Amino acid sequence: MKPFADLLERLLYTTGRNAKIALLADYFAHRPDPERGYALAAIAGALDFPGAKPAMLRELAAARTDPELFALSYDFVGDLAETIALLWPPAARAAPPGLPDLVAALRAAPRAEIPALIEAWLDASDVSTRIALIKLITGGLRVGAALRLAKLALARQFAVEADEIEEVWHGLEPPYTALFDWLEGRAPRPAPGAAPVFRPPMLAHPIEAADLATLDWSAHRAEWKWDGIRVQLVSTPGGSRLYSRGAEDISAAFPEIVAAMDFHAVLDGELLVIRDGAVAPFADLQQRLNRKSVPAKLRAAYPVGVRLYDMLFEGETDLRGLPFDARRARLEAWFASTSPASMDLSELIPFAAAADLAALRAGARDAAIEGLMLKRADSPYLAGRPKGHWWKWKRDPLSLDCVLMYAQRGHGKRSSYYSDYTFGVWTAEGALVPVGKAYSGYTDAELQRLDRWIRAHTVASYGPVREVEKAIVLEVGFDAAQRSTRHKSGIALRFPRILRIRDDKPAAEADTLETARLLLPS
Amino acid sequence: MPPHPETWLHPRPEGLHCVPGDFFIDPTRAVDRAVITHGHADHARPGHRHVLASAETLAIMRVRMGEARAGAVQQAAAPGEIVRVNGVGISLVPAGHVLGSCQVVLDYEGSRAVISGDYKRRRDPTCAPFVPVACDVFVTEATFGLPVFCHPDAASEIAKLLHSMTIFPARAHLVGAYGLGKAQRLIALLREAGYESPIYLHGALQKLCDLYQALGVSLGDLRPATVADKDALKGAIVLAPPSAVADRWARRLDDPVIAIASGWMRVRQRAKASGVELPLVISDHADWDELLATVEDVAAPEIWVTHGAEAALLRQLSLMGRRGRALSLIGYGDEAEQE
Lengths: 522, 339
Fold this sequence. Notes:
A: 522 residues; 20 helices; B: 339 residues; seven-stranded mixed sheet; globular
């Protein structure tokens, strides 16, 4: 367990992508089977220990600490595993279990014996091993980006293409002995076969002013950029799956889509809540995300559909090498003959000149439209984010000058700083009413400055929340304003982020609720 | 019956005020009479008329703010000396925080309050160790007043730094360390660990290191990083204030290993947020266990908390059956943030 914990610790403090890949490659090159396979599984989130949940670890920690001290510590540290690891009494002797032994023991133990098992391991570990241990058994290591890096590390270490690994990935099981056997030349490549595996999607670059000036508009196609979640539909004789763009299998949350996949193809599209042909705001789709099962009532209230962008496979035929126009023609013909339920085609927007699109983009008031997509007519379907093929041209953000009202400590990389800000605007009666909460957009220096200011200007505390003097004006950017019955102001902001601190503006001159309401869709 | 300290010791916007003696302890703005615990900028402010402090603290104040601003009248209290002001006995007792740092012991009509200033209980080769003094009220800091803060042995953190230098022998190790106390303690600990090579300093650290050496703390071969040959810095230790580590100043070094020596490095995401590759958990403030041990050692029935994470400490005091009170003094902790 210790070498794996060391790897995680070094990854944490390493900033460069290449350096991280080098650390992972070194680990996979030097650690034995099946340890490295279980490490890969942990990073992939493929290890599930139903008997070990965060609540159980909390209980173990609670038995050894005062609940109030635990709560205050957790509020500061911002990470449950780290809080427990730091509060746990120091180890008398460090002898943590090996990773394969740990997996075997957890799988073999009756549920009632698991707490004692974990307790003994924590007692025999140092702080970094305790953190790794807790994250491992509660599934807290799963990070999509880290899995991609791990695959790139394997590709580099064993001199294969990352996409070759990606294509066989979903047919493999921990501890991935078949994968390592192939990578080290002891066995042939595992067959992707008929399994409904995920293919790395093609992503777009944000378009910059310089690109706009030089773009050959006649060689591009335009589509709306919808504000849903990007999905891949994979249906083969081996089964049907719905994947998020990060390769997560989200089939269980959207059974009606999977049921509609009575064909053999791999499609790229946007998952949206659609009512009577109109796309609902993202907030509606959020009601359906992150679920293991969906009650019928919820399905009826938030009906989902997929707006199709592209086609990667038709039956067994790989279309990814074809130009965009050719794939689009195949997609349209296929759609016409198949007419699948719960799906429609993303419309190609006709335009004659760049100015037409600029006007459309500026005029798009639909909250579900994020902007435009520009795709080169001759682009093959390429994995990753290749430069110069697809562009996203987002709408300019809306903004409001708001007054900072409440602050809370953040989690993850902003832990221990007051980084989550609730801000408001003035009502006609001269009171402040909250319109949103943001925890991004500022620089590190601004974060530290706000953190210090908040601690020195707190007027009241409500548990972890601090109410501050109403003196700081924040320029808040957001993609859209939506009506909301959950907020007292009647307004909810989409993707709010702090654009800057308005030191030049006194709080009394911040925006009013009346101004904010003008930004709502009519 | 002796008067309870809350009748003669009051928190005021300027800081803690001793009413019968009419002086402030570590006032945050200029006052007529000040007693200063130690030389950090948030405790020792310029412009007081009369300043009482240890001889070392006065020397540090003169170096940092100039003779004129370190107090029109500067009075040094010798160890063991009792200074009487209007019926209040004042004596200074080592706090173990940085060179010259002292607790302020106040005796008034048979009642005693001890104001700790900042302190630690760990060994520090650059200053006298903390001496617990029994009292009726103990006024403590709580910079690291959460049970997650348990500083490891400083020698093991120094070993981590020296080990990293063997892994990356061609890279400079740039260590961010607070300029008064932390930097000198790091140097002294490195020397104790057998590191004899020259250590290179950011300009802001030079004067205080010179003063430490002049006051008898030997720090070995120190050289300015600014004028050093770039190649000499490869594989060397370079010390700079934490603020310079993230700044343009650090760009003079070719691919340095960034380290920061601070108690905050205990929390990983916080360490990561400060951009370090090598966090060193070395602190000049008491950790949780040291705070609790000190509360036991001074045997005070009542504890006042000046600044830091007071909520957790107050909770713990109530579990221990002690009376706790948060003074919520504003203006301290700028140094603690960097510490």
